[in-house]
Write a structure and sequence with these properties.
Elements (H helix, E strand, L loop, with lengths): L1 H23 L17 E4 L2 E4 L13 H7 L2 E13 L9 E13 L6 E7 H5 L9 E6 L17 E3 L6 E2 L2 H6 L11 E2 L1 H13 L2
Antiparallel strand pairs: 1-2, 3-4, 3-6, 4-5, 6-7, 8-9
Helix pairs in contact: 2-5
């Protein structure tokens, strides 16, 4: 009788143990590569702040430049001439930064020689997506949202510094992301005309 009771207990223990272990183990979540997400800009619905869907940051390896170009609403090079913080108020409950550029060369969404002001959510500025007056840059910007907000495509991938000689500098991250591009691949610096050529090639692939 005693042996039979022990046997029953062992069977119950063996049956319950996998269930207990499964309940204690953390649920598996499919990993999301870092390049799939970037900080989303907030939008307003009435007076409540909601977040836009996360925008993709393009992965390295493949020739991603055509998708990078398609995501951009504005592509230009220019000099930052003014930066103005715009606090939240009764008409605009979202704090923003207004950045004004003197456009030197334009590829898409604007024209050369004009002054262009873009509006960026303060959260992106605080996270490191900043400009400074006098800085020369080449930027790929998303089309403005319903509130007129924009940011660089793919975060740091959508922004390039320009040196005193007018050469566009590619960071190690740029070199990795665009290494398969037939024009920009493997280059640490390039002329603006090279970027215009790369954009034209990308359009032909659409």
């Amino acid at each position: 009788m005693f042996g039979r009771s022990v046997g029953c207990l062992l069977v119950l223990f063996a049956t319950a143990l996998p269930v207990f272990v499964a309940a204690q183990a953390p649920r598996y979540q499919r990993p999301t590569p870092e390049f799939l997400v970037q900080p989303a800009s907030p939008e307003l619905s009435g007076r409540a702040i909601v977040r836009l869907p996360r925008r993709p940051v393009l992965p390295p390896g493949e020739c991603v430049f055509p998708r990078f170009v398609r995501a951009a609403g504005m592509i230009f090079s220019g000099t930052v001439t003014k930066i103005e913080r715009q606090p939240a108020n009764a008409g605009q409950t979202l704090e923003t930064i207004a950045v004004t550029f003197h456009i030197e060369h334009a590829i898409r969404g604007t024209t050369s020689g004009r002054e262009l002001t873009i509006t960026q959510w303060i959260g992106l500025w605080s996270s490191g997506q900043r400009y400074r007056v006098g800085e020369r840059v080449l930027v790929f910007l998303y089309p403005p949202s319903k509130l007129g907000l924009t940011s660089s495509v793919g975060g740091p991938l959508g922004r390039f510094n320009i040196d005193v000689a007018g050469q566009v500098l590619l960071s190690p991250q740029h070199i990795t992301a665009f290494r398969k591009d037939p024009v920009l691949g493997g280059r640490s610096r390039a002329r603006f005309s090279d970027f215009a050529l790369a954009v034209r090639h990308a359009r032909e692939e659409e």
